[in-house]
Here is the input.
Amino acid sequence: MAPTTTSPTYPSTLVEALDRLPDGDARGFRFLTLDREEKYFPYSAMRTEAQRRAAFLGNLETAPMYGVAGGKLNKGDTVALLLPENHEFVLTFLGASVGGFVPVPIYPGATFKVTGHYIETLAHILVAARAKVVVCNQRNLEVVQLLKELPETKDVVILVAEKDFEADAPAFTRPSVGPDDLCFLQFTSGSTSKPKGVAIRHRNLVANTTAFLGPGGLNAGALHGKPDDLGVSWLPLFHDMGLIGFVLGTLIVDLPVLLFPTTTFARSPRLWLELITKHKGTITYAPNFAYQLLAKRVTEKDLSSLDLSSLRVAGCGAEPIRARTLIEFASKLAPAGFDAKALLPSYGMAESCLAITFHRGGTSMRVDKVDPAAMREGKAVPSDADDALELVGCGIPFPGHELAIVDESGQPVGERVVGQILARGPSVNDGYFENPEATAESFKDGWLYSGDLGYLADGDLFICGRAKDLIIVNGANHYPQDLEWVVGDIEGVRRGNVVAFSIMKDGLEVLVMAAEGNSGDAARLRTEIAQVVQQNFGLTASHVAICAVGALPKTSSGKAQRKKTKAMFESGELQEHA
Amino acid sequence: MNRGELVTIFQRMASEVAEKDFSHVTEDAAIADLGIDSLGMLELVASMERELSVSVPDEQLVGIQTVRQLLDLVERRVVSK
Here is the structure.
């Protein structure tokens, strides 16, 4: 097939995209299951199964909850997806979409966070999403059923995907779904007690997909005359990078994918590159930590069996990008045919669907070396000195999208001056689900306030940090207040006298916990705090500081100050017990 | 396989995953204290699975905090193989 010269017509919704995908067995989604089985679904089979699941969801009887009436689900009602098995996730998501319902993907918690804290988080999300129905897998049913024991979620309907979609589908008439209808809610931002659902409409999704997979971006998929593209991903599907990047966006442009579970990647990181080799993958994406892990794990022996020459895009995003990491990865994998020009740093946020800037494709990545002292003053002054900071260019905004950098009073700043990043354009959503307070905080005068700090230089965006106290480790966002709350339960620690923050160590973001305690308890507290953080969040604290009672800086109202504690820690002023 | 051999295998595998010398780590150690996070834990378990030809489902790792708990779990899987 010759590349098309006329611009393709895009579907206006995800549902229309699914209806338009070609029949036949040649194109579709391939999955590796958690039991390492391979399952292939041609688009036509995905379409049939989505219709069936829509019918099951549309015929459920629900109880009244959260002030929402009971009975059958209406168009626009939410359905929570807690599905560790990727093919079940994708088929159920599409089923909900076809039925006119709004899927709410949630971290399925099959592994680590399965504690009281996890169930609480889950219940808070269900309430915020007004979700009366939860779909899970057999393997996490036991945990999901704990929702029945909580007063606010006791009436929730729990479906098990392997079992409850088995029978012949009941009768169901599909509603019409339009571009202004909600497509899904994403709950990866907001603290545990006040989760925020990023509400994405079909038109936002289509606009973003057109930008990042279309001619202004990767120019990928059969809709763009590239029928041989194949996406390969292990990214979790409850987060935008995996969900939009490799499921929803790819369906819109007809880009077949191979998906395998995040936990399988964690168990065997090399499998990522082995699958790209085996299936001749052309597009992949991952946070910084994954490239770093692979640069370490790949051995000389592995190189001879890997062939990454098919890979034309190796995207990087979702957490701070470290120049060294990508350079090391590229040079380590060069003997396996990896082209450094495939590296594609990018920047985005859930509120803009996925990305909003992309590094200019087909060119080497841009590294800006700046003076560290000037950077502490908020200025990116070029430097060639040995101590220069290396920042990675995240590229330019998508066509039809705009960025602005503003100071604390909201005034635009100049080139190479650090400020908060603002974004606007058709990918940017119009607020959080039923949460006017959070919406008013982040959306002002038509701009989305990202909470991230950065600067512009020659049109390229560089990311410096965050205006908020968010902690991002291994691509996952953690709110300091959540960590502090859980640690506050430990005997000998007083709630309010605990601070969680992150620092950069060897170019990576790592967690530090600081708490006040008696010197005799210091050793025990260090161990217990590390354990509690590990069990509840799967996070390893790089350092636990136990300080004398009264040593942590507080506000006049007695609240511990994170920024000040962090500054004291970094300058060595924080006095710790031995 | 006796317990001592299992501990030795753990020490070797954990050293590889965390890139530190864990040849003297005892069973009392908390895994979090070794600098092994949830991703590292999965990789560690996978390498022990390969070495011992057993499988340990992700779900069974819930609540595992110490080296002893992990080795108890792996040992049960070896015996029931």
Notes: Chain B touches chain A through 22 residues (CB under 8 Å).
